[in-house]
C-alpha cells in the first residue's frame, strides 16, 4: 500500500514544474508537500510542523488560516468572486484604492491593480514610458536600474533586472537599461561612505549627460532583496530621489518586498520621506493571501493620460483579474488588522529583539555580515571572515543550511550564500526566539 505522501510525491514528480527550481535536483529529493497552515506554522502531509521562516516567499503578514481574513473572503464570495474593472467597477476595489492612497507616501493618489509584483512593475515601466510620450516629450525611453536588482520575471521586469544568473540568458530579447552600482557596503573597499559615493556619482553622471533619454529610475527602496537583503546607507534613497527630481526623471519605487510594514515602516520610502512618482506594491498587500498587486501613481502622471479619446493617450493595459474583488476584500481586511494590532510599531520592537538575539551569531567564524531592516534579515556566510572570501557556489552552503533548518522545523530559502530570515510580521517574541535558535543551530551545523 502506498501512502498519501508517496502518491502525491509521484504525481508531483510526473507533472509539476516548480518555479526557480532545478527539477533534476528537486526530483531527487524528498519533496515537502504542505497541507495546511495555522498561525505562523505550516504542516506537511505527513503531519510535520514547520515555522514559516521566510513568510512563504516574503509575503505573509498575519500568519495562516486567519479567521478575520478567511471571513473577508467568504463574505465577498457570497456576493461575487470576480467581475472586471474594464470600463466598470466593484465595491472592494474602490474601497481598497481609497485606503491605499491614505497609507501611501504623499502624492500617490491613483491606484492601478494587477496580480503580481512583476505585473505591477511592468505597469510602472509602461506608464513611465507613455507618460513622456503623452506629454509630447520624445526620446525619454530608457530606464536606469541598479546592479543586482530584481523586479520580477516578466519580460519588462527582467529588462530592468540585473542579476546575471536569472537575467543574462534572456538579454537578447530584452530592452537595454542603464545599470548603476548598488551600494553594497560590506564588499566595498570604502565601506558605507565609499559605496554611497559611487552610487550617487554614477547616477549624477548619467543624469547630467543623458537625462533627455531617460524615462525613469527604478529602485528597491532601502533594501535590495533578491541580491541578498542588502541595506542602503542612510540617505541614499532620498539623495537619489532628489537627483531624479532635479533632472526630470521619474522615480519608480518597487516596494513589492519592502511594503506593508516589513521594514518597520508602512513603506520603506517612508523611512526617508521619499515620495516616488510611481510605486509598486504586492506580496503583503493581501496579508499574503491572494495574488493582488498595484501600481500607484501621482496625479501628475495620471493627468498625462487624461484626455479626449481621440488624442490617443489611454493606458491600454489590463489583466483578466485586475481588481479582483476577493483579493481586494482580503487586502482591506489585512490593512484593518494591521491597524487594529498596531503592527508597524510591533515590527520595530520585534526587530530589536531579533537584532539582540542574532548579535552573538556575528562572532561565529563564517558569519560575514548580518544585515537587517525591520523583519527583513540576511546573514551572509563567508569562508574567511577577514578576507571576506566567499564560499564556492558549488558548495551550496545556503541550500545546506536551509535543509538543516527544515530538519529542525523551520522553512527558509537562501539567496546564494545569504541565509534569509523573513518571519511573518505577526510572529511573537517566543516564536522569533525559537526560529532564531534554529537559524543559529543550522548555520553552526553546516559551517
Ligand atoms: N519586485 C521585488 C523587489 C521583488 O522582491 C519581487 C519578488 O520577490 C518582485 C518584484 C516580483 O514579485 P512577484 O513574484 O509577485 O511577481
Automatic annotation (TrEMBL):
It is found in: Cytoplasm. Pathway: Cofactor biosynthesis; biotin biosynthesis; 7,8-diaminononanoate from 8-amino-7-oxononanoate (SAM route): step 1/1. PROSITE patterns: AA_TRANSFER_CLASS_3. Keywords: Aminotransferase, Biotin biosynthesis, Cytoplasm, Pyridoxal phosphate, S-adenosyl-L-methionine, Transferase. Substrate binds at residues 150, 283, 318, 413. The keyword Cytoplasm applies. Homodimer. This is Adenosylmethionine-8-amino-7-oxononanoate aminotransferase. The lineage of its organism: Bacteria, Bacillati, Bacillota, Bacilli, Bacillales. The gene is bioA.
Amino acid at each position: 500500500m502506498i501512502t498519501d505522501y508517496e502518491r502525491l510525491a509521484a504525481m508531483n514528480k510526473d507533472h509539476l514544474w516548480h518555479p526557480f527550481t532545478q527539477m533534476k535536483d528537486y526530483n531527487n529529493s524528498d519533496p515537502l508537500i504542505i497541507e495546511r497552515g495555522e498561525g505562523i506554522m505550516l504542516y506537511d502531509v505527513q503531519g510535520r510542523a514547520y515555522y514559516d521562516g521566510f513568510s512563504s516567499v516574503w509575503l505573509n503578514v498575519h500568519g495562516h488560516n486567519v479567521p478575520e481574513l478567511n471571513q473577508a473572503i467568504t463574505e465577498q464570495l457570497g456576493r461575487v468572486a470576480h467581475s472586471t474593472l474594464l470600463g466598470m467597477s466593484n465595491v472592494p476595489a474602490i474601497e481598497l484604492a481609497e485606503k491605499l492612497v491614505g497609507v501611501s507616501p504623499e502624492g500617490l493618489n491613483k491606484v492601478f491593480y494587477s496580480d503580481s509584483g512583476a505585473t505591477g512593475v511592468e505597469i510602472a515601466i509602461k506608464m513611465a514610458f507613455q507618460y513622456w510620450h503623452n506629454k509630447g516629450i520624445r526620446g525619454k525611453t530608457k530606464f536606469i536600474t541598479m546592479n543586482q536588482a530584481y523586479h520580477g520575471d516578466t519580460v519588462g521586469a527582467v529588462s530592468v533586472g540585473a542579476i546575471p544568473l536569472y537575467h543574462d540568458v534572456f538579454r537578447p530579447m530584452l530592452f537595454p537599461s542603464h545599470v548603476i552600482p548598488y551600494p553594497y557596503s560590506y564588499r566595498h573597499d570604502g565601506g558605507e561612505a565609499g559605496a554611497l559615493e559611487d552610487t550617487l556619482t554614477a547616477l549624477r553622471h548619467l543624469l547630467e549627460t543623458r537625462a533627455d533619454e531617460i524615462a525613469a529610475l527604478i529602485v528597491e527602496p532601502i533594501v535590495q532583496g533578491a541580491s541578498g537583503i542588502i541595506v542602503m546607507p542612510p540617505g541614499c534613497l532620498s539623495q537619489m530621489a532628489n537627483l531624479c527630481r532635479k533632472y526630470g526623471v521619474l522615480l519608480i519605487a518597487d516596494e513589492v518586498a519592502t511594503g506593508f510594514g516589513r521594514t518597520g515602516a508602512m513603506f520603506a520610502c517612508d523611512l526617508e520621506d521619499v515620495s516616488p512618482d510611481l510605486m509598486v506594491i504586492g506580496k503583503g498587500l493581501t496579508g499574503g493571501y491572494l495574488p493582488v498587486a498595484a501600481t500607484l501613481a501621482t496625479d501628475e502622471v495620471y493627468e498625462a493620460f487624461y484626455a479626449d479619446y481621440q488624442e490617443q493617450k489611454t493606458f491600454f493595459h489590463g489583466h483578466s483579474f485586475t481588481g479582483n474583488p476577493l483579493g481586494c476584500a482580503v487586502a482591506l481586511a489585512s490593512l484593518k488588522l494591521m491597524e487594529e494590532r498596531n503592527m508597524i510599531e510591533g515590527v520595530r520592537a520585534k526587530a530589536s529583539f531579533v537584532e539582540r538575539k542574532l548579535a552573538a551569531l556575528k562572532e561565529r567564524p563564517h558569519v560575514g555580515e548580518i544585515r537587517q531592516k525591520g523583519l527583513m534579515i540576511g546573514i551572509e556566510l563567508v569562508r574567511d571572515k577577514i578576507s571576506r572570501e566567499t564560499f564556492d557556489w558549488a558548495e551550496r552552503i545556503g541550500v545546506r543550511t536551509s535543509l538543516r533548518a527544515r530538519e529542525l522545523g523551520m522553512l527558509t530559502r537562501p539567496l546564494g550564500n545569504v541565509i534569509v530570515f523573513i518571519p511573518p510580521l505577526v510572529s511573537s517574541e517566543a516564536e522569533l526566539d525559537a526560529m532564531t535558535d534554529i537559524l543559529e543551530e543550522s548555520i553552526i551545523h553546516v559551517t
